[in-house]
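Re: your question about Laccase

S., sorry for the slow reply, the queue was backed up all week. Below is exactly what I fed in.
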Amino acid sequence: MEPRLIAIFMIALSFPHFVQSLVRHYNFSVVLKNETKLCSTKSFVTVNGKFPGPTIYAREDDTLIVKVTNHVKHEVTIHWHGIKQLQTCWFDGPAYVTQCPIKTGQSFVYNFTITGQRGTLLWHAHITWLRATVHGAIVILPKRRVPYPFPKPNKEKIIILGEWWKSDVEAVVNQATNSGLPPNISDAHTINGYPGPAPGCISKGYTLHVESGKTYLLRIINAALNDELFFKIADHKLTVVEADASYLKPFETDTIFLSPGQTTNVLLTANKNFGKYLIATTPFMDAPIGFDNVSSTATLHYKGTPPYTKTILTNIPPLNATPITKTFTDSLRSINSNTYPTKVSSTIDHSLLFAITVGLNPCDKCTNGNKFVSAINNITFLMPHISLLQAHYYNIKGIFTDDFPANPPMVFDYTGTNQPDNLHTENGTRVYRLNFNSSVEIVLQGTAMIAPENHPFHLHGYNFFVVGQGLGNFDPEKDPLGFNLVDPVERNTLSVPNNGWVAIRFRADNPGVWFLHCHLEVHTTWGLKMAFIVDNGRGFNESILPPPKDFPKC
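Result:
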């Protein structure tokens, strides 16, 4: 550690009440790990040999310095999902968008400050499908002496939901890419790395230990690659207080719903004297396509419960429980207090309509002569050979064009039965350019082309407000009249409903290159992604900082 940082650290220890922010150091070693799950052993990529990976703890306004060293054959990057990265776009993490990957035997130091954020987020690999096992929690505590806007819990627990393949995940995606067909689905879902009991295999499950009368803050993360998930605890209510590191008006429910990349904090009161209660995470899918329909279970175990006590079971939601997802989503409202105000733009500089489609493009080497692709406004995004941010910062020509369409090239009945006959899309590395501090509204419109389904979308570098959503086609005359501009939920990842639409708003006050993509990894692989370039504003505080000296080379 540098002498200057040692001095700062010693001052913080001596006068903790006077220090509002710290510099926190972490070392991430990307290594292989052998482990047996579902009665099958495989070697897989991890950080520090842990699955899930290590938790990063910080406070609002702390600076994080994370050295990532790559000891495996795969190139790797780490994305700090939900961190706004104000002026530090170089450290956002998506491969070939903001950085070149870290090669085998090399290191890269991520250095960024957590400004104006507190709550639960996650970190994960952001290249190919490595995030299946390379992921972990980010816990951002409020500033010192700043309380939660809800009753203080007695303890806090982290719950990470994921997916598990018996096969090597990189082999799964490579096989799908070569065949042009959808990839093989996962073999199980996991809770904190444990799949729980499975057919034909006695498999250990996770146990959440609690004491009667105490309240627990559960920080729940969906780190799955391709599945939206329900979470439920038998005979217990959950009070939802936060989503994607943004405080909410609290509400009570027995089932929560998370898309990949989303986080939800809930209060759990252990109001039983003793006992064991089933914890279940189950998939949601309201479209006729293949998916992992296996539930994962864990146990809520009260201290003092006698041995061999029977576990209390629960009814799990149906796989296609759209009413439950809608009820949960409609209940999310920003806290909108004096301390945490909701600032939604009332005027719009850029009004965008992004139609989400699945298509088929010719592929000579593929099984059927075609390959599945996905697109926004009929553009299937192609990744460049150097990072978009490098090309933008150094004005390198020929890497991208800034002519991404603001609207679909052809207007049709997006969610109707009469879909376009031409299922081909246009390939391109095209971005949409925004002036600094401009206000942006995006309507993400689902379509019925080939395979209508939910699409969880994640925007890097920003939070956004979900001002409206509905089923069918968005009506630009009628639907905005019902927009919630008072207390809409603030998120970084949202779920576009099957054959429906969602409207979001944000202010482009963070210069850089920012990725927008579906957080179902299968669709990202197919090209369901694009990027915004937000130009510098005026002066140092509104401009991208220079790249770090150890920036990886492509």
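The first strand starts at residue 23 and ends at 37. The chain has five helices and 33 strands.

Happy to talk it through on Thursday.
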